[in-house]
């Protein structure tokens, strides 16, 4: 678990985050994505962007409360370990691998599963509603394992991978198209 992975559509490039855009621009792009039924993003609800912005704000506040030092107001997303399922979300999905040691530990946070179900799904699991620091997520993985191993098919709950919220652009600059 030394590498973080980012999955993206090849024509768009990596680290294109809707919440970096003004809301009206993000909504136009989201509507365009919803038109292409071959994309996973086409399944998102009309409220997706509003919910996502709220969840990202909550995640940031929890992260700061644990000693995190976010530089960005909203994160970029990666996974801890590979997750082939995410690559399948795209027509021409690409995978980017970056060593976790390239990141300052105070600028990355983790959820056990995707931020949406982790922060919204209520089933009593102890990792729901939680944001973790690097040392904490490794302890949690020792206890529960990697979701991308025990829930490859998604039939054992909404956890499919460990999500990493990247709160600093600096380690990503060489990968971001401007």
What are its keywords?
178 residues, alpha+beta, 6 helices, globular
What does this structure look like?
- The chain is an alpha+beta fold and 178 residues long.
- Helix content is 31%, strand content 16%.
- The chain is built from 6 helices and 5 strands; from the N terminus they run E-H-H-E-H-E-E-H-H-H-E.
- It has helices at residues 23-35, 48-65, 84-87, 115-120, 134-144, 147-150, and strands at residues 3-9, 76-80, 93-99, 108-112, 162-166.
- A 5-stranded antiparallel sheet has the order 3-1-2-5-4, covered by helices on one side.
- The protein is globular, with a radius of gyration of 15 Å.
List the helices and strands and how they pair.
Elements: E1 3-9, H1 23-35, H2 48-65, E2 76-80, H3 84-87, E3 93-99, E4 108-112, H4 115-120, H5 134-144, H6 147-150, E5 162-166
Antiparallel strand pairs: 1-2, 1-3, 2-5, 4-5
SSE pattern: EHHEHEEHHHE
Stretches where pLDDT falls below 50 for ≥5 residues? none
Q: Radius of gyration in whole Å, from Cα?
A: 15 Å
Helix percentage: 25-40%
Give the oligomeric state of the chains in this entry, treating copies of one chain as homo and distinct chains as hetero: single chain
User: Strand-residue fraction?
Assistant: 15-25%
- Main sheet? 5 strands, antiparallel
**How many angstroms does the end-to-end distance come to?**
30 Å
Number of helices: 6
Q: Which strand order do you get reading across the main beta sheet?
A: 3-1-2-5-4
Overall pLDDT confidence: 88
SS-derived structural category:
alpha+beta
> What's the number of extended β-strand segments?
5
The 3D shape can be described as globular
